[in-house]
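Retry 2 of 3 after timeout on previous attempt. Resubmitting structure tokens to design endpoint.
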């Protein structure tokens, strides 16, 4: 797997359409679910934007659209201060598979745009395949792109077979990104999906890049050792004089075709995330981490939530 070569590459990824996407964003999954945390969440998003983390990832599913509304409120609250012009932001949302059709996708996209306070999305994703007709979904994505409502589109939670099917439909090869679950403890895609997409130049966005608060559960419900408390993880972090969160995020960002969208609300955690872009892990450090969380040696069903 390739590693970062220069400072500029740390900050953005070249997409198949020739545009660039930030390598670090702010996730909004599980935001806007507790009204008592609303102001804190808004302040966190605003602080992240001011720190240069200008990519915001959301979805129509998150809190029934409330997460998009919260993000829109955060953006609007910053006004026209430095770095918050619309062209400085990179807004991402997702459509549910049941809405990825000619009857509903346009209204879903417009609702997301309205909640986010924008007249276009930088990236629009099919949240997961479900029962969506891929030919129809892609047709709708292309129509939104032609209308200027979205700049580009991609998918989320697509495994190799899903991607193969996507490539077979008209304009399916215009897919720019696949957003997937990936972190030190969830490495299944390294076996087949990563090499498959690399052969075709399709990059990734990693959600939950530091895990669910560092705690992982296998698909059969057996708890794994929490990444946050793993001996090798703590040893490498202490030796590098960085936090465990930064180490886990740097593990994902070591791959030059990966963006990461961690969710953070606390200002100190947002600072940690921003600084992770400047951390380059050595091969020896990755090997030590792999002693606890090894790369897969066989196909693993895609993990997602």
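Retry 2 succeeded. Sequence:
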């Amino acid at each position: 797997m390739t590693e970062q070569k220069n400072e500029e590459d740390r900050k953005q990824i070249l997409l198949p359409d020739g545009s660039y996407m930030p390598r670090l964003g702010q996730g909004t999954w599980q935001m806007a679910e507790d009204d008592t945390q609303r102001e804190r969440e808004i302040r966190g998003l605003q602080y992240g934007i001011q720190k240069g983390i200008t990519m915001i990832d959301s979805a129509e599913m998150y809190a029934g659209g409330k997460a998009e509304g919260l993000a829109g409120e955060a953006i609007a609250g910053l006004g026209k201060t430095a770095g918050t012009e619309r062209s400085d932001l990179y807004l991402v949302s997702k459509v549910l598979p049941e809405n990825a059709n000619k009857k509903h996708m346009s209204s879903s996209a417009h609702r997301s745009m309205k909640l986010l306070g924008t007249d276009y999305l930088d990236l629009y994703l099919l949240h997961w395949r479900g029962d969506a007709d891929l030919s129809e979904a892609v047709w709708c994505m292309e129509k939104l792109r032609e209308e200027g409502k979205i700049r580009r589109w991609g998918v989320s939670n697509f495994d190799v077979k899903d991607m193969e099917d996507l490539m077979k439909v008209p304009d399916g090869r215009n897919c720019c990104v696949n957003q997937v679950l990936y972190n030190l403890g969830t490495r299944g895609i390294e076996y087949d999906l990563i090499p498959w997409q690399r052969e075709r130049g399709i990059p990734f966005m990693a959600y939950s890049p530091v895990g669910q608060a560092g705690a992982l559960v296998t698909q059969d419900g057996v708890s794994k050792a929490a990444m946050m408390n793993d001996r090798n993880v703590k040893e490498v972090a202490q030796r590098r004089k960085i936090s465990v969160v930064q180490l886990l995020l740097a593990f994902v960002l070591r791959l030059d075709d990966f963006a990461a969208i961690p969710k953070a609300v606390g200002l100190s955690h947002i600072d940690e995330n921003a600084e992770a872009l400047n951390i380059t892990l050595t091969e020896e450090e990755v090997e030590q981490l792999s002693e606890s969380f090894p790369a897969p040696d066989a196909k693993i069903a895609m993990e997602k939530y």
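Attempt log closed. Confidence is low (pLDDT under 50) at residues 1-5, 218-224.
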